[in-house]
Amino acid sequence: MSAKVLGLGHIGFYVQDLDLMKDFYANFMGMTLTKAGPLGAFFSADPEGVDHEIALITGRASLDDPHWIQQISMRVDSL
């Protein structure tokens, strides 16, 4: 059994400063904040069609911490 990748679903990043990154994605990148809480935030470039493409998750201890990718999600035709 196999699945065909149709495209990128979303990517999650561990961030050190959630408020700073929320400001970056909302005001510089022009994305829409679709969900937010004290530990994370979700952004979409097309909120009518896609819940989120970017997930920001707190937990990056420092900018020197190489563990900043939290997850990568792909859209597939079938599982």
Notes on the protein architecture:
Strands 2-3-4-1-5 form a five-stranded mixed beta sheet, covered by helices on one side. The termini are close together. With 79 residues, the chain is mainly beta. It has one domain (7-71): 2,3-Dihydroxybiphenyl 1,2-Dioxygenase, domain 1. It has one helix at 18-28, and strands spanning 5-15, 32-37, 40-44, 54-58, 69-76. The longest helix is centred in the N-terminal third of the chain and has 11 residues, at 18-28. Helices cover 14% and strands 44% of the residues. It has one helix and five strands.
Descriptive keywords:
single chain, 79 residues, mainly beta, 2,3-Dihydroxybiphenyl 1,2-Dioxygenase, domain 1, 5-stranded mixed sheet, 14% helix
Please summarize what this structure is.
This protein has one helix spanning 18-28; strands at residues 5-15, 32-37, 40-44, 54-58, 69-76.
How is the secondary structure organized here?
Blueprint: E1 5-15, H1 18-28, E2 32-37, E3 40-44, E4 54-58, E5 69-76
> What is the correct CATH architecture?
Roll
Helix-strand makeup class: mainly beta
What are the secondary-structure elements, in order, as H or E? Answer: EHEEEE
Please count the beta strands (DSSP E, at least 2 residues each): 5
Shape: globular
Strand content: 35-45%
Q: Output mean pLDDT.
A: 95
Count of structural domains: 1
CATH superfamily: 2,3-Dihydroxybiphenyl 1,2-Dioxygenase, domain 1
Specify Rg, calculated over alpha carbons: 14 Å
The level 1 CATH classification is: Alpha Beta
Count up the helices: 1
The major sheet is characterized as:
5 strands, mixed
Fraction of residues in H or I helices: 10-25%
Q: Using the coordinates shown, work out and report the CATH topology.
A: 2,3-Dihydroxybiphenyl 1,2-Dioxygenase, domain 1
Strand order of the largest sheet: 2-3-4-1-5
